[in-house]
């Protein structure tokens, strides 16, 4: 598909890791910030705008998405080191940031290798794993607004919490970030990445279409443990199933609809609340127009 060109009525199943969902009214993969800025200034981008990275934390509903879907992965992919900071555009994979930083002899970036998404998505939701979170290491970010203006913002411009980032300035979108990691040892950092990747492969159903952890971990507990304790491993609706390998993952057995997955999510929340009196909050985002009930 041509980059820097606005396409219409594009199937989104190939642009999210659950491999479900309808069509995008307008669709764009843009590999230059200035081109995106120009399109916004000239009002070529139909609102609302939905930015998507690897689509690894999204459930795209079967009715598709109105407005414009802008896919960052395959687009904004520059990464470099400068003055002790790592500059990464929003389309860079988290895994690439982790490996790049390790090669620079920096520490603490290994956890990014366990996040199956892009920097843009990690910034938007404060993605994290293995006890670390994205915004622990953010120095500043570059955003773009609906007028096409590119502005650097400091950490203080955002309200940051567990799996949530609220921008105090509305209608802005992440283009890039500068990360600051402590100095470390290249060999040790690369070894840590290999260890975390091996652990991820051993404990998660990576051979199935999935969107990673479905629910946030409640304070002092684990969503996977609660779901398993409620006897929901293997629970299935249509082509969507709670993974037998990791209960906080819902897999697409090959023929799932987005509605199947959403029904499983709702059922898990209902059962866990009934049995444990704990309300599980989604980690994944649900976007688009719903079909069916």
The helix fraction, in percent, is 10-25%
Q: Which radius of gyration do the C-alpha atoms yield?
A: 19 Å
Per CATH, the architecture of the largest domain is 2-Layer Sandwich
What's the number of domains?
A: 3
Low-confidence stretches: none
CATH class membership of the largest domain:
Alpha Beta
Description of the molecule:
The chain is α+β, with helices and mostly antiparallel strands and 293 residues long. The chain has three domains: 7-71, Uridine Diphospho-n-acetylenolpyruvylglucosamine Reductase, domain 2, CATH 3.30.43; 79-202, Uridine Diphospho-n-acetylenolpyruvylglucosamine Reductase, domain 3 (2-Layer Sandwich); 223-287, UDP-N-acetylenolpyruvoylglucosamine reductase, C-terminal domain (Uridine Diphospho-n-acetylenolpyruvylglucosamine Reductase, domain 1, Alpha-Beta Complex), CATH 3.90.78.10. 24% of the residues lie in helices and 27% in strands. The chain has helices spanning 33-41, 94-103, 119-125, 186-203, 223-229, 258-276, and strands at residues 7-11, 23-29, 49-52, 58-60, 65-71, 79-82, 85-89, 128-129, 132-133, 138-145, 150-154, 158-161, 164-167, 172-179, 236-237, 240-242, 250-252, 285-287. The strands form six sheets. A five-stranded antiparallel beta sheet has the order 6-7-14-10-11. The radius of gyration is 19 Å and the shape is globular. The two termini are 33 Å apart. The mean pLDDT is 95.
């Amino acid at each position: 598909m041509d980059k820097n060109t606005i396409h219409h009525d594009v199937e989104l199943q190939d642009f999210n890791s659950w491999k479900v969902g309808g069509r995008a009214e307008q669709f764009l993969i843009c590999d230059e910030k200035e081109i995106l800025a120009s399109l916004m200034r000239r009002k070529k981008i139909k609102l609302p705008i939905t930015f998507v990275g690897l689509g690894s934390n999204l459930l795209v509903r079967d009715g598709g998405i109105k407005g414009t879907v802008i896919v960052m992965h395959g687009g904004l992919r520059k990464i470099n080191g400068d003055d002790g900071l790592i500059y990464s555009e929003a389309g860079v994979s988290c895994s690439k940031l982790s490996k790049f930083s390790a090669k620079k002899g920096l520490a603490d970036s290994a956890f990014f290798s366990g996040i199956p998404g892009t920097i843009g998505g990690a910034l938007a939701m404060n993605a994290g794993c293995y006890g670390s979170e994205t915004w622990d290491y953010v120095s500043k970010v570059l955003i773009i607004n609906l007028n096409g203006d590119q502005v650097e913002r400091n950490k203080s411009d955002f309200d940051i919490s567990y799996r949530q980032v609220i921008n105090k300035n509305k209608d802005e979108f992440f283009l890039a970030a500068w990360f600051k990691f402590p100095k470390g040892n290249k060999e040790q950092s690369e070894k840590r990445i290999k260890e975390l990747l091996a652990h991820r492969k051993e404990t998660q159903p990576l051979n199935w279409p999935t969107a990673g952890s479905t629910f946030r971990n409640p304070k002092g507990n684990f969503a996977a443990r609660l779901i398993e304790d409620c006897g929901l491993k293997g629970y299935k609706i249509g082509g969507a199933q709670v993974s037998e390998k990791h209960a906080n993952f819902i897999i697409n057995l090959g023929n799932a609809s987005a509605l199947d997955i959403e029904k499983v999510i709702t059922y898990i929340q209902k059962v866990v609340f009934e049995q444990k009196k704990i309300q599980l909050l989604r980690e994944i985002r649900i976007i688009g127009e719903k079909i069916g009930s």
